[in-house]
Amino acid sequence: MPLSLAQMRRNYTLNGLLDEAAPDDPLAMFRQWLQQARDTECAPVEANSMMLATVDGDGQPHCRVLLLKGLSDDGFTFFGNYQSDKGLQLAANPNAAMTFFWPGLERQVRIEGQVSRLDSQISDAYFDSRSVASRLGAWASPQSQPLASRAALDLRLAETIKRFVGQAVPRPQHWGGYCLRPARLEFWQGRADRLHDRLDYRLQNGEWCRRRLAP
């Protein structure tokens, strides 16, 4: 029996997004929206969750959920396995996109730019802040590679625990941080009757230029 989704819809009525209320700096606006997503009772459990889209060598896009772990004037920081599918895709093509969706606030932010690896010292510091179990997992999991079974992963973890018993767990060289330096941010605020607000910021000659897009 086919699954009917045609009548699933929601009318967005919480807020509007007016040009005069938007700052010139989109990163300042993103910080404000992220803080509001963290503070509101309607926010997802992890307000820093995002979709990261990359493209492989055949032009096939790939998308997955990650967690944003930092934001500075340089860009948006996240961490992962350099040898994973996303790591290999980013090594071949640094262009990527992020999407944040906060349904409780009826808001979405789309970000596009280029990704580069973080300095090893930054990756070391973040890795050391993780739980011991997470650090061991980074060593044990050959991310994106085929596994014979769940038991095979459990065996790899057991061997990793034995390897590092009684000592600190260092960051593996195949694991570390990335920074997406934004060239475009689009802020979307849901509005009634699908006439949503969209403010689009693009970096041009080192300056942010803002324009409104039709919904």
TrEMBL record:
Binding site for FMN: R64, V65, L66, L67, L68, K69, K86, Q108, Q143, S144, W188, R198
Record-annotated Pyridoxamine 5'-phosphate oxidase N-terminal domain positions: 46-160
PROSITE patterns, sorted: PYRIDOX_OXIDASE (PS01064)
Keywords: Flavoprotein, FMN, Oxidoreductase, Pyridoxine biosynthesis
GO molecular function: FMN binding; pyridoxamine phosphate oxidase activity
Catalytically driven reaction(s): pyridoxamine 5'-phosphate + O2 + H2O = pyridoxal 5'-phosphate + H2O2 + NH4(+); pyridoxine 5'-phosphate + O2 = pyridoxal 5'-phosphate + H2O2
Domain of life (superkingdom): Bacteria
Pathway: Cofactor metabolism; pyridoxal 5'-phosphate salvage; pyridoxal 5'-phosphate from pyridoxamine 5'-phosphate: step 1/1; Cofactor metabolism; pyridoxal 5'-phosphate salvage; pyridoxal 5'-phosphate from pyridoxine 5'-phosphate: step 1/1
Gene3D superfamilies xref list: Electron Transport, Fmn-binding Protein, Chain A (2.30.110.10)
SUPFAM superfamilies per the UniProt record, alphabetical: FMN-binding split barrel
Annotated cofactor note: Binds 1 FMN per subunit.
Binding-site positions, substrate: R9, R10, N11, Y12, K69, Y126, R130, S134, R194, L195, H196
Family: Belongs to the pyridoxamine 5'-phosphate oxidase family.
Assembly with partners or alone: Homodimer.
The protein's name: Pyridoxine/pyridoxamine 5'-phosphate oxidase
Species of the source: Pseudomonas libanensis
